[in-house]
Amino acid sequence: MFGVEKILRDEKCLLLAYDQGFEHGPTDFSDDNVDPEFVLNIAREAEVFTGVVLQAGVAEKYYASAQGLPALVVKLNGKTAFHKGEEPVSLQVCSVERADELGAAAVGYTIYVGSQHEEEMMAEFGRIVEEAHERNLPVIGWMYPRGKHVEGRETDKEVVAYAARLGLELGADMVKLPYTGDKDSFDWVVKSAGKTLVVVQGGTKKAEEELAVEVKEIMAAGAAGMAVGRNIWQDEKPVEMAKKIAKVIWG
Ligand code: FBP
């Protein structure tokens, strides 16, 4: 599985996502968590993460000189939030080679499944899988149904299962997906992904109990874990929140 165990513990996974500054701009941030060092400290202190997801610039300026951090996942593509209403497309901004030089244990790439631009993203993703696997780097596909062809169906069982399967077909070692909202439908999503491991995105900040129920159902469906950002670093007690999520994942 091309080194995917580097971002697992006991075959399970909890990634701290911190690429929202690229995807959304600093709008998600407070005076504290706008500082990458604040978020990397959460990653260090919680001691529960199996990886932290960064864009290359933040990785270079903050991760590279830091100690005691979980494995690095470098996100290779991204888009800004300035194109609302258009068909989404996100193209490569960092090479596999650069990610490797930065010390990445894995690389990530978003495909907007269903977008009219999906072919471009699939083609880039395919090349990235080849290059990353040559370097024994696992590839995580952020497989997000988006665009007018899947509008209103972004979390439907069949659409998310299709996104999961596409990840397997393209060679992803792990796929990051939205949750379908119930365990039964997510069972099918996980089955559709086959040997490709499944993790679920956190999404916008929600009530702790709601998140705990979701994580429990997601794990019961056979997922490998979670990749969470805002629900942790926007929390008043982010380290405790991370530990609570980890407790549900590892039991
Ligand atoms: P969150 O847990 O904060 O949702 O982070 C997961 C993530 O996939 C990030 O990696 C990414 O920046 C963001 O969500 C993208 O969110 P969206 O596409 O919904 O705007």
Can you tell me about this structure?
- 40% of the residues lie in helices and 18% in strands.
- It is built from ten helices and ten strands.
- It is globular and about 40 Å long.
- It has an eight-stranded parallel β-barrel with strand order 1-2-3-6-7-8-9-10, surrounded by five helices.
- By secondary structure, the protein is an alpha/beta fold.
- It has a single domain (4-250), classed as TIM Barrel (Alpha-Beta Barrel).
- It has helices spanning 20-23, 36-46, 56-63, 96-101, 118-134, 157-170, 183-192, 208-220, 230-233, 238-250, and strands spanning 13-17, 51-55, 72-75, 77-78, 91-92, 106-113, 139-145, 174-177, 197-201, 225-228.
- Helix 6 runs parallel beside helix 7 (183-192).
- The model has no long low-confidence stretch (mean pLDDT 98).
- The longest helix has 17 residues, at 118-134.
- 1,6-di-O-phosphono-beta-D-fructofuranose is lined by residues 17, 19-20, 23-24, 53, 142, 144, 201-203, 227-231.
Record the SSE blueprint.
Blueprint: E1 13-17, H1 20-23, H2 36-46, E2 51-55, H3 56-63, E3 72-75, E4 77-78, E5 91-92, H4 96-101, E6 106-113, H5 118-134, E7 139-145, H6 157-170, E8 174-177, H7 183-192, E9 197-201, H8 208-220, E10 225-228, H9 230-233, H10 238-250
Parallel strand pairs: 1-2, 1-10, 2-3, 3-6, 6-7, 7-8, 8-9, 9-10
Antiparallel strand pairs: 4-5
Helix pairs in contact: 2-10, 6-7, 8-10
Bound molecules: 1,6-di-O-phosphono-beta-D-fructofuranose.
The site of 1,6-di-O-phosphono-beta-D-fructofuranose has 16 residues, from helix 1, strand 7, strand 10 and helix 9.
